[in-house]
Amino acid sequence: MVLVVMPRTIIQNGTVISLDPEIGDLEDADVLIEDGEILDVGHDLDASGAEVVDAENHIVLPGFVDSHVHMAQTQVRGIAGDWSLMGEYFDHMLGNITGLYQPEDMYLGGLFGALEKLHTGTTTALDWSYPNSLEHAERAVDALQDAGLRAVYTYGPPGDDAAKWWYESDVGLPEGLIRDVYEGQIEGDDLLSLGLGLRGPDFCTDETARADLELARDLDAIASIHMGAALWTSSTYNEEYQGFGAISDMLGPDVNIAHANNFSQEDIQHAVDEGVSFSATPEVEMQMGHGVPVTGKVLEAGGRVAWGVDVCSNISSDMGSQMRFGMQTQRMLDNEKTMEGGEEVTSLDITCRDTLKSATIEGARALGMADEIGTLTPGKRADVTMIRTDDFMTAPSHDPIETIVFQADASHIDHVLVDGEFEKRDGELLNPLVEDEFDRFVESGERLVEESGIDR
Predict the structure, then answer these.
(1) Do 295 and 402 share a domain, yes or no?
(2) Strand runs labelled E in 157-252
(3) Which of 87, 211, 273, 360 has a CA positioned 20 to 30 A from the CA of residue 396?
(4) Is residue 382 located within the same domain as residue 352?
(5) Which one is predicted more confidently, 403 or 3?
(6) Could you tell me the residue range of the domain that residue 16 belongs to?
């Protein structure tokens, strides 16, 4: 008989922010991991047979979850910082650049987008993809697998013909290709799951919107839908819940709405009651003209948003920025409302813990993974981020959650584990592809921008 010894790791003597209400926050505590699973969280745990990771002067927390991002745009970062949504972005990105992508461009953008996620403490992301062919999709999935990120690969409309796939499109998502990608690469991969990127009735016919959502259900895939941003409107209206139009009777916990800035409070209440999750991408939304982030409306309806980065061709893919932007924007709106009523602001309704939860457990819930990740809970997978608190920019850490939200950046993230495996250690990514593919990554971005002919 062969004795199989499972790998064990113990993270010792850290400030543990578990985000599990039963475990809470612990000082000088340990996290015990075996075979990628969290076995225990507490004090003075048995470290026999385990690799010891010293967490003194570190905050130990669940890895961040980005609930909405287009990672293939990573190698064209820095071109869209002055773009609006309905002007330059639709014309230049969806009407031009995405059509120029070759399969290797999808791979390189996705690879370095995923590596950036890991470097900045994000262990899970929903990657909303625009594959122009089966090979484009396959290489996008290869990128996620090669990077080691936990991800929802979200097959959206191809990027080769904006007139065909957007506006009043009557063309449904390519079911055969989606099944090929799922069965060929995603099925059986413990770190990957399938999502469908839907246009919803804002950007396709009612029949197409319903058919695409039915396909997502048939595939048991998260349905991620761009809806309710800028002045987008559904093509037809339901009398009671007009914002969701043709799909108002199809909402459920497997539906995630990205943006939703201009939905009414009644629309949001209806969706929250049906179990729908919302992904707010505050920095992008404030720049590009989406409207006010939906955060306040979701909170009023009894729900909580998840944060996302969205368009990494114009902003950093760091989730810390979204935590700050999202929380502080809502605080500003709340404060303004109070002062307009003739009262002084004497308390803040949305807290640092709230925004951290939106970047972790709420993101996990939005992606259907709350039983697997999002908190440091025994039985969940060991997706862990560790932040230094002895740096001159983070010390002294009087409140670890405020340190995470306000002071820490990527330079303070020492260690990142996905499924119990180190992806970043002692401040450095371990993946050799960071160096091996860097030149090709840069060349890809330069070629795409040059071929696009956009004025820089």
Answers:
(1) no
(2) 192-198, 222-227
(3) 360
(4) no
(5) 403
(6) 8-62+372-429
Distance CA 28, CA 148 (A): 29
* Residue 110 to residue 122: CA distance in whole angstroms: 14
Q: What are 184's two structure tokens? A: 């060929």
Indicate the SS3 state at residue 110. helix
Domains: count for the chain? 2
pLDDT at 455: 78
CATH code of the domain in which 169 resides: 3.20.20.140
Task: Return d(Cα 406, Cα 421) in angstroms, integer.
Answer: 27
| Nearest 10 degrees: Cα torsion 386, 144, 180, 306 | 50
* Length reported for the chain: 456
Q: What is the pLDDT of residue 242?
A: 60
Rounded Cα distance between 177 and 219, Å, is 12
Do residues 122 and 63 touch, judged by C-beta distance below 8 A? yes
Q: Domain check: are 239 and 297 in the same one?
A: yes
426 pLDDT tier (thresholds 50, 70, 90) = very high
Last residue of a domain, one of 333, 362, 391: 362
| pLDDT above 60: residue 234 | no
pLDDT score recorded for residue 4: 43
Q: How far is CA 259 from the centre of its chain?
A: 13
Cα–Cα distance, 271 to 278 (Å, whole number): 9
* pLDDT tens for each residue of 261-272: 999 999 999 999
CA–CA dist 228, 41 (Å, integer): 41
- In the 8-state DSSP scheme, what is residue 372? T
Say yes or no: 345 and 376 in one domain.
no
pLDDT digits (tens, 9 = 90+) for 241-252: 467 889 999 999
In single-letter form, the type of residue at position 72 comes to A
For residue 169, give the DSSP letter. B
